[in-house]
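Supplementary Methods, section 5.1.

A reviewer requested that the exact input to the structure prediction be made available. We therefore reproduce it here, unchanged from the version used in the analyses.
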Amino acid sequence: MAQLIDGKAVSKQIKEETAKEVLALREKGIVPGLAVVLVGEDPASKVYVSNKQKACKACHIESFGYVLPESTSEEELLKLVGELNEDPKVNGILVQLPLPRHIDENKIIHAISPKKDVDAFHPVNVGKIMIGDYDFLPCTPAGCLALIDSTGVEISGKRCVVIGRSNIVGKPMAMLLLHRNGTVTICHSKTKNLAEICREADILVAAVGREKFVTADMVKEGAVVIDVGINRMENGKLCGDVDFDAVKEKCAAITPVPGGVGPMTIAMLMKNTVTAAKIQNGTL
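The structure derived from this sequence is encoded token-by-token as follows.
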């Protein structure tokens, strides 16, 4: 039976450490602040935003919430982002994705100051991650890395396979593993012999967005499996990209869904906000 990698426990520890750091900064008169912007009525986005605001409270981070109607124009959103860029109380800016169709997500991401881009989606921050000289890491890949570390497994020299090549998870995840001296393969919908490649992985990260896509025959005995996917089954229950019940009998360690990678994303966002506050106040 595999070790269950408990994202709730690891994220709780990170948030507790972050809260102590914030209290120490507050004593110096520095109050980290995060602005979260939500456009529209997407139910999943509303839950994410609510969870981020709760995490801010737990970490003693000032939270600035902006809930805008679906009809908000691109110009109006860009104006708000510009104002937040100039606001010294706001250290981090997060515009919740996805945005309504009439708004160009790339234009909004590019408008956020790289110094306040706590999602690390801005091209400047993406470039910094590529060369290994970064201020922030994208929250989900950073959370995955922390979960791998929590198992005690050494990444250096290991065969690592990432399924998925999105800008948000797949590509940055591969870069982070590479920076830690993993030998990395990125797989995607056009990859031939996918199962064969996955079976070579000592560390397998699934970020493909397909229900129970990774089956037991795709997993090497004793591998560490990180499941980034969140999919809703016909019965209404959540499941990941990995067939958890089958794979857990074969691997050494695995993240559950829910309770694995999900809580880590918000914990890493809190860390990034504190890092941004330190940089902007010249204490880092």
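The two ends are 43 Å apart (CA to CA). These observations are discussed further in the main text.
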